[in-house]
Amino acid sequence: MQSHRESQTESQESYRHPTPSRVEIIPSGRYYSKRxxxxxxxxxxxxxxxxxAAFALPGxxxxxxxxxxxxxxxxxxxxxxxxxxxxxxxHGFNGTSIQDVADHSGLTKGAVxxxxxxxxxxxxxxxxxxxxxxxxxxxxxxxxxxxxxxRVREVLDRAARALRDDLIIQAGVRLQTEHSxxxxxxxxxxxxxxxxxxxxxxxxxxxxxxxxxxxxxxxAYTLVSAFFGLQHVSASLNDRDDLLERWAxxxxxxxxxxxxxxxxxxxxxxx
Length: 271
Hints:
Structural class: mainly alpha
CATH architecture of the domain at 16-60 and 126-268: Orthogonal Bundle
CATH class of the domain at 16-60 and 126-268: Mainly Alpha
CATH topology of the domain at 16-60 and 126-268: Tetracycline Repressor, domain 2
Order of helices and strands: HHHHHHHHHHHH
Low-confidence stretches: 1-44
Number of helices: 12
CATH superfamily of the domain at 16-60 and 126-268: Tetracycline Repressor, domain 2
Oligomer: single chain
Strand content: under 5%
């Protein structure tokens, strides 16, 4: 009988971005009062440019070898990247060698080096793809209607699903926690997420959706810390199999402390 992780690895032979499934937002008791989406019209809070800027990697891109032009070469490069993601995710940066990637992929070391000139280049390529996927996820949620605080929760819900299901995301997150080992080729983790959530929460404060005296930047720091800390615990103890359940429970507690009570909203809008 195949394990979840084995079937996942086999299903990721092609290099496609998996579209994150929509995760139902779980109400947080009486402190969660959903407004009709028409209240915000078609306003896009986070644009593709915003997401790209937040998740842009510093410095010039690393040289990754010749650009594949034939379909077979493209598939091979994608296969190498996914094989590297599997090994990095399981063993980390220091515990992975080019030979390990070659063994996992069934290719020679020379074939791996043809597409990626070093272990650092492979790690950077995985994080670049992880950031591209984060940006797409944020852009998708930013283009939807609904209360601003709902979008904050939705983007984290989808990020949790991606962390559970997407091997590139899993490897990228582990590599970023070890960014100091990769000789400066990887960006400082979590900064892009804090920037995006701060922007959302700042507008949510202005819209009167949050409790009084909530500092958007501190709230964003707290959410990012709680989210990525929780996913790390889930990964360490249960291979992220319980991540969605754990995050649903934890996010109820976190958002309970952020969202303004409906009765307070009514006091501010007596008409």
